[in-house]
Amino acid sequence: MKLCLLTYNLARAWSLPKLIEVARSCGFAGLEFRAEAGHEHGVELERTPTERRQIRDQIEDAYLEAVCIGTGCRFESPDPAQRQANVERTRRFVELAADIGCRRVRVFGNNIPATVRRDDCVRYVAESLRSLGEFAEPYGVDVLLEMHGQFNYWGFARAAVELASHPRIGLVYNCDRRDLVAGSVAATYSQVRTLIRHVHLHGFTGSYPYPELFALLRRDGYDGYLSSEIEGTDGPTREQFFAMYAALFRAWAGQPFFPMAD
């Protein structure tokens, strides 16, 4: 398991050099960029081929990996034209990801419209994902549906991915408290464990059972990334917060500990 620094939300105002500096000093292995959200990292569709090459070079020169680009693209609309517009935009993000050496793009289901049957909405999402998987295949990029909104429910998320039935399609597991059954995440995790390609962590100070999740991931031999999707802090500096977050991650993941950076 490897820890990834996600720009949402604590690091949204940091430039790419700053992100790289903090990731290196705190023991993160990669970077995830939230796009289309006004973040300062600059990993957006508007980047020229030269700028994309420069982004890739900066990340690789720091011995880090561009792990994922988080888009706002979603596919639950009953309007085929709207879904297709989101598919086309996601395709552009697949191209951006390939250009910067990133192997994952995140998309949403997200919420089922009141006028749409649930099975129909799952089918809308699945059809969009299938199209994107076929497009992304030659680029070597995975298109991952985040368990988010109503699609946080494993029944919808798993069904959409299974209906899409493409090797480039998988899930982002989102560590949501709604997943807990009798205080445990094991029942929900067991329903999607084979489809998880990426994980979004949140604040470690809440009641979500992260030690249990880490044990389940380790049992299954998960060797992918887990991203730090965390909000602001009123205590330590942002740099100190990321350092402490990384140290706790390593403890739960059974990895070596080294002192927090000054």
Verbal overview:
The chain is α/β, with parallel strands linked by helices. The chain has one domain: Divalent-metal-dependent TIM barrel enzymes (TIM Barrel). It contains 8 helices and 8 strands. The chain has helices at residues 16-26, 49-61, 80-100, 118-136, 154-164, 186-192, 210-219, 238-253; strands spanning 2-6, 30-34, 65-74, 104-108, 142-146, 169-173, 196-201, 225-228. The chain has an 8-stranded parallel β-barrel, surrounded by 6 helices. Helix 4 (118-136) links the parallel strand 4 and strand 5 (142-146). Helix 1 packs across helix 8, helix 3 runs parallel beside helix 4 and helix 4 packs across helix 5. The protein is globular and about 45 Å long.
